[in-house]
Amino acid sequence: KIEAGRATINQSTFDLHGMLQDLKSMFQVRLDEKGLVFELIIEDRVPQTIVSDESKIRQILINLIGNAVKFTKHGQIRCIVDAKYCDNDEWNLMFQVEDSGIGITAEDIQTLFQVFQQAPGGIKEGGSGLGLAISQRFAKMLGGQISVASEPGVGSCFTLEIKVREDKSAQPGRKTPRHKISGIKDSKGTYRILVVDDVKESRELIASLLTPVGFDVIEASDGREAVDIWNKMHPHLIIMDIWMPVMNGLEATVKIREKNGGKAVPIIAATASAFEEEKQTILSTGMNGYLRKPIQEQDLFDLVAQCLGIEYTYHSSEK
Ligand code: ADP
Asked: What is the pTM of this model?
């Protein structure tokens, strides 16, 4: 799509600081598991509300932070965000993602942003070698670029620079849960929710939100596994990532819909896609709802309640 020049910029006004905090929580489980420290440093001058393509910025940062986590065994990852004012509310934003991981040789840096290029460490860890190539193209569409400095055995630092506009007038429409959910009202049994995603952190994030409320969360890492689990366990609801290896979410949905009982099961699509047009395609394939990643807690709970026809109970005292 990018190569064909059909990728478009979708601008909106959003809370940059909030988005960065969301990204941090998205990676938290994986970071804890690996015993890595993650530091998010946002300099005071960085504007809060900006106008830009939120999905593309998010997708680039997920790629950079995801790689940092993937290629670091010990130590820490730091994401430092800084800004330089130009004029007319225009800012240059700079995001640095620094890790203490395996590093990249000068030779491998040459080809890093080309499609399907992986350094030896990358080949070992798996992946597609597409992430950085796409991220670099997105960065260019946003009027900037990604650069890298690295030393093998010491670590890497990826820098994303883009141009954005500050929206001083806007009050970002950020959703924060009104009250903390404590459980399911008048629950007549346990609801099984199947979460399908090839990225472990994404599955774990959803599970960490749903499990404490009393849902039984089952995980699958691709479409084929999801179809198998559907056949065996008949979950009450499925949250399905769209882009996955082996069998993608749309194919898996078609397969599940073909099976007995699978016509009625609510399926919610979850995607980090930066392509807004895709939402319509997804909904037109018979999915019951659409969640944009990284998932907002309230959106998730609202959609789950709507699909299952349930209500929640809430903690009475909210700080
Ligand atoms: P993928 O991670 O799917 O292979 P990417 O385009 O995101 O694809 O990355 C390409 C390659 O660059 C990786 O396979 C890896 O070899 C190297 N790389 C990227 N980020 C890092 C990092 N933080 N530390 C070490 N190597 C990295």
From this structure: 0.64
